[in-house]
Specification:
Length: 211
């Protein structure tokens, strides 16, 4: 039994620490906002100019003027602040964000990430991903272990255009968690989803990793 999307986000949320400033990417990473451990103070930052993001609003609480960088409606907190995107990216590029959780289409065994475009498909732009992987202190990728066609996404070398090279610190998939202590060491399999065996992970992964 693999983790579902919310369980993957909850596992990623275990890496948060009190006082962290955190940026959440589009897709599964946004669910981390609703899985912050109780009693922990974490400040969420969005590239479009917001610091202090609350949980996703219920339908009767939606304010169409309040959105994150992925254009999803969000809620504000009493401590929320707003500013221009240039200040937002100054926070990211200046190393003031402690952790980012991103989705990905591919991650290589060397920590490269491809998450912004598929050649031949329309894309609106890079967004903040390239700045995030270059400026944030810790990079966690949350993604399905395999694509819809069954192809591995944790692979020896990324085939899609790169967002960043040798930047990923942890990978959380629906099957397992991989981590490396630094950007010179290989990834290590540190956790399996309930009901998932190490053999199944090995069969569905082409990247080199330690167990």
């Amino acid at each position: 039994m693999a983790w579902d999307r919310n369980q993957m986000a909850a596992r990623a949320a275990k890496e948060l620490r009190d006082g962290y400033y955190v940026n959440l990417g589009i897709g599964i990473p946004t669910l981390v906002a609703n899985n912050i451990p109780e009693g922990m103070e974490v400040t969420l930052q969005s590239e479009n100019g917001m610091l202090g993001i609350g949980p996703f609003p219920y339908d009767d609480e939606v304010d169409p003027d309040l959105i994150n960088a992925g254009k999803q409606t969000i809620s504000e907190l009493a401590s929320s602040s707003y500013f221009g995107s240039e200040q937002s990216f100054a926070m990211i590029r200046g190393g003031h964000i402690d952790l980012t959780v991103l989705g990905a289409m591919e991650v290589s065994q060397d920590g490269d990430i491809a998450n912004w475009m598929i050649p031949g498909k329309m894309v609106k732009g890079m967004g903040g991903a390239m700045d995030l992987v270059a400026g944030v202190k810790k990079i966690i990728v949350v993604m399905e272990h395999n694509s819809k066609s069954g192809d591995p996404k944790f692979i020896p070398e990324c085939l899609l255009p790169l967002t960043g090279k040798n930047v990923v610190d942890m990978i959380v998939t629906d099957l397992a968690v991989f981590q490396r202590p630094d950007h010179q060491s290989p990834f290590r399999l540190i956790e399996l989803a309930p009901g998932v065996s190490a053999e199944e992970v090995a069969q569905k992964t082409t990247a080199r990793y330690e167990s």
